[in-house]
Amino acid sequence: MYSLTRPVFQRAFLLTLLLFLSIASKGQIIFESGYFIDESDQRIDCLIKNVDWKDNPTEFKYKLNDSSAVKEASLQNVKEFGIDDGSKFVRARTLIDRSSDKVRKMSPVKEPEFKEEVLFLKVLIEGKASLFAYVDGNLTRFFYKMEADTQTTQLVYKAYLIDNTNIGYNNYFKQQLIMNLICSGVQFEDIEKLRYAQKDLEAIFISYNKCVNSEYTTYLDTPGRDDIFHMAVRAGVSLASLEIQNSSGNQRDNDFDNKLSFRLGVEAECILPFNKNKWSIVLEPTYQYYKAENTRETGRIVLGGNITTKVDYQSIELPLGLRYYVFLNNQSKLFVNVFYVADIPMNSFIGFTWDNGTPTSRLEMDSSGNGAFGLGYKYGKRMSVEVRYHTDREVLGNYRDWASSYNKVSLILGYSLF
């Protein structure tokens, strides 16, 4: 049971994917104006590859100008680096507690278990009281430094196991802030209600710097991110095929022709707050249908001679997955989608009928999930087009003696509402 059109779909999609990767390999090297300070305290203005680091980096790539070769700098030879009007990182030799907050790995010790490390810390607030962040996977730690201090110190927060069923929390960071930030504009009660969270800590450090009339600079994450959520209408056509096979040997195997049908969906997209808005989570509820029939000879003249098999398949698909953008310029970008597709059939069946109109059997369709991969192009903030390939889907999951394979490729046009 194998459709001749499927290799065509797969080859076309593979060629498109290779073209996408070729463009992506050229389009993703985006260098922005920045600087770094080397071991001799010399400031070097340059172009830095800005990847909007989710985790604190240990190295970065830079060019001295547009035409020069790409070089690499790291913790070993850079004291500080930054992107103009963007992120700033400073090197610090400091004590850090990397205790896990996962129950299976959680420490039974309340006190922080410090180790000395050399890190690039991300500057959040810089003033008389400065705030820094360090992120490494699921680990997030905040650090502070007062103007008179020579060392950067971790703000201590730690979850720990009291016994097998209870978890305790070391909130010593509040005591650290009380000892350093109390002033007329920052009261004891303000600090007591703080969470160990970036927004809370940023707010209290800004309040303190204002309170003591200190000039300060903020390097907050992606200012003005008012476009993190998008909604779009997605309409298109699909070329689909279905194959069914019965293992009992009653000769009801069928390969149905490729059929063109329409699909209509609504897409919700949430842009993730890292890596320069290149990643997003996408959910796209979609109505789709496939209708086909064929007739074949059975040799049983008494029973009607021929049997007609009819497919009426309608469903709501729920693709959920990730999207990755490749920015070509300010107006256009490519994207690739990877989805898991759940499927909810609606009054869908495969029916078998003799020539004389007598039905022989009816199979109610019950589909399983499948994968889907899409490649697309978006122009401006509104218009998009995508080619999407779906992997095989089983649609007769309720029947032990039946196997099926539903396969399709879709051309989708999108219009963003906001």
Task: Pick out its properties.
single chain; 418 residues; mainly beta; Porin; 11-stranded antiparallel beta sheet; 4 helices; 24 strands; 12% helix; 53% strand; elongated
Q: Poorly predicted ranges (pLDDT <50, ≥5 residues)?
A: none
- Strand fraction band? over 45%
Largest sheet: 11 strands, antiparallel
Q: State the helix count.
A: 4
Structural class: mainly beta
Number of strands: 24
Q: What does the average pLDDT come to?
A: 87
Number of structurally distinct domains: 2
> So what's the overall shape?
elongated
CATH class of the largest domain: Mainly Beta
Radius of gyration (Å): 30 Å
N-to-C terminal Cα separation, in Å?
45 Å
**From N to C, what is the helix and strand string?**
HEEEEEEEEEEEEHHHEEEEEEEEEEEE
Give a brief description.
The protein has helices spanning 5-27, 172-181, 188-192, 198-211; strands at residues 31-38, 43-49, 59-63, 71-74, 78-83, 88-97, 114-126, 129-136, 139-146, 153-155, 158-161, 167-170, 217-218, 229-246, 254-271, 279-283, 286-300, 305-327, 332-345, 349-354, 359-364, 370-379, 383-393, 402-416.
Describe the protein in words.
With 418 residues, the protein is mainly beta. The protein has two domains: 29-218, no CATH class; 224-416, Porin, CATH 2.40.160. It contains four helices and 24 strands. Strands 1, 2, 3, 4, 5, 6, 7, 8, 9, 10 and 13 form an eleven-stranded antiparallel sheet that branches. Strands 14, 15, 16, 17, 18, 19, 20, 21, 22, 23 and 24 form an eleven-stranded antiparallel sheet that branches. The mean pLDDT is 87.
